[in-house]
Amino acid sequence: MKLKGRNVVIGSFVVVVLLAWYFWDSAERDIRKLLADGEAAVEAEDITRTLSHVSRQYIDEIGLNYLGVRRVMGWAFNRFDGFDVRLHDISITIDGDMAKATGQLQVLVLNQGENVYLIAESGTPDFITITLVKQRLAWKVISVNGIDVSRFRL
């Protein structure tokens, strides 16, 4: 009888630990959700939702800031029909309130009835680095490096 009660206590403890681990929000899980929602927002051509993940302090390696990102996104949403965003092989490193996500990115768009690559022109994904910072209660993107927007002729 004592052995059965002990097994129930141990089993209950294991279940509680597993449930706590599953439901506990981790920084990596939050970042992966942000990236997935960002992909979905671009595919839905929802500029407000897309920019909700971008910090107002955004600045990347080529000097593009938040307003520049807004301009690029507005141009792309007006210029093309249909977006297919493919961000894969994501690796995330977290250091306190800062994080870096690296991965491979392809963006296909519908242009005059044809699917063409907007990012990763030759079909080979661009290797990108996304830098994030924890602001208040949410992670925000402060830079995306590895994408050459000069070919867009804005």
Q: What is the first-to-last residue Cα distance? A: 77 Å
The total tally of domains equals: 1
The total count of strands amounts to 5
Fraction of helical residues: 25-40%
Show unreliable segments: none
SSE string, helices as H and strands as E: HHHHEEEEE
By DSSP (H or I, 4+ residues per run), the number of helices equals 4
Indicate the proportion of strand residues.
25-35%
> What is the CATH topology descriptor?
Nuclear Transport Factor 2, Chain: A
The whole-angstrom Rg is 20 Å
What summary fits the major beta sheet? 5 strands, antiparallel
Overall pLDDT metric? 86
Determine and state the CATH class. Answer: Alpha Beta
Question: From the coordinates shown, what is the CATH architecture?
Answer: Roll
Report the principal-axis shape.
Answer: elongated
Which structural class do you get from the secondary structure elements?
Answer: alpha+beta
Question: How do the helices and strands line up, and which of them pair or pack?
Answer:
Layout: H1 2-23, H2 27-43, H3 47-51, H4 66-79, E1 81-95, E2 98-111, E3 114-119, E4 126-135, E5 138-145
Antiparallel strand pairs: 1-2, 2-3, 2-4, 4-5
Which key terms come to mind for this protein?
154 residues; alpha+beta; Nuclear Transport Factor 2, Chain: A; 5-stranded antiparallel beta sheet; 5 strands
Please give a structural write-up.
It is a single chain. With 154 residues, the protein is an alpha+beta fold. The chain has a single domain, classed as Nuclear Transport Factor 2, Chain: A (Roll), CATH 3.10.450.50. 38% of the residues lie in helices and 34% in strands. Strands 1, 2, 3, 4 and 5 form a five-stranded antiparallel sheet that branches. The longest helix is centred in the N-terminal third of the chain and has 22 residues, at 2-23. The protein is elongated, with a radius of gyration of 20 Å.
